[in-house]
Specification:
The chain is mainly alpha-helical. The protein contains nine helices and three strands. It has two domains: 3-49 and 188-222, no CATH class; 54-182, no CATH class. The chain crosses the membrane at residues 12-30, 195-220.
Amino acid sequence: MSMQNRLKARGIAMLVIFVGILGVIFSPVFPGKINGLDYLDNMFNMVSKGSSYFIPGAIKDSEKYTGKLIDVKIKLGDENQAVETARLMETAGAQVAVAGQELSITGDMAKILKSSLADSDQMFANNGAPIQEKYGIAEKQVLYNWFTAFKSISNELTKQEKFAEAKPFSSVSKKALEPAYNYYGVQAMNWKENIVMILVALGFYVFYTVWYGFGLMYLFEGLGLKIGH
């Protein structure tokens, strides 16, 4: 057999193996009867969640704002969201006036921040039922309302040139509300305890990609095609 034929046979064999493994990856044969892509996606989501728990630090930081009052007027997406958000603020001890889509809020910064962080902590632990019972609102909608309100509050305080007061609302949104909302329902995984599985998955991805590349290269060379520039 000539060198070209050997290269062509090698390339075809490697690509056949590649397609065969790809078929297994897309088959529901992994734990939980899901395919490989979903399995790896779930695993890395769990690892990511395990590295995104900043709520205790945010609660500690909020202490420094005890007794500091804010007085802002914000606009929500619609009247229903305004009424729901007013309920959140009132539960946090703030005084709220609702006028259509607008809220006028006066309250202690620390109490408002801590109330949102307590809800975020419950949601991060996938414990949404107490949140729904507390407000009579779907748990994810509660976090969405906090997030929307804090974004508007931060913007309003920035307009008032109260930059120090605006910062914690933005920080809590990014470090607590957003992760708790996005990872709700996902189990957290410690990457250190699963480092072998993570390295195997990453190593397989690199090896599998290189295998495909060499398979194509051998096939093209066997067909007399050369890649150049």
